[in-house]
């Protein structure tokens, strides 16, 4: 219940996940947006993450989860080539990923997280506090690649950058107080 009022959690849970029903679901045809009364087996449907996670019961086989478009081979290849060059803001942020069974994709996503976090922490130490994207930054000494990276951060990454900047600021204040 800690996340009950969390906007990030609400958005993550409302993220649509492509699924295919394996069984007939009576009286739920309205979820497909059709006039059919039931959802028939092999019917593809995008469901909110919260509903998908409820239906993915270990001992039942109600539905199969399809790979979200944000994780297709084109995106995987781009992430493998250069994790920093992919604009995560435009992808399905907040979909989680704990349900991903593809070991290759998990490795790519882990490497992406690691590479991007290294860059975010480095930028947090170099950027002034409060300067996270082009729209509110007056410092023009950063190159275009850095601008593109900053503008492609998803909300979680922006929060990490902000915390890193605040930590850097506090560290500098502490160092200044020790030398005074």
Automatic annotation (TrEMBL):
Q: Which InterPro entries match?
A: GINS_A, GINS_bundle-like_dom_sf, GINS_Psf3, GINS_Psf3_sf, PSF3_N
Compartments, record wording: Nucleus
User: Boundaries of each GINS subunit domain copy?
Assistant: 74-175
DNA repair in keyword set: no
Q: Cite the entry's keywords alphabetically.
A: DNA replication, Nucleus
Query: What GO biological process, any one, is recorded here?
Result: mitotic DNA replication initiation
DNA replication complex GINS protein PSF3 N-terminal domain spans which residues?
5-57
Per the record, the similarity remark reads: Belongs to the GINS3/PSF3 family.
Question: Subunit structure, per the record?
Answer: Component of the GINS complex.
Task: Report the protein name in the record.
Answer: DNA replication complex GINS protein PSF3
Source taxonomy: Eukaryota, Fungi, Dikarya, Basidiomycota, Pucciniomycotina
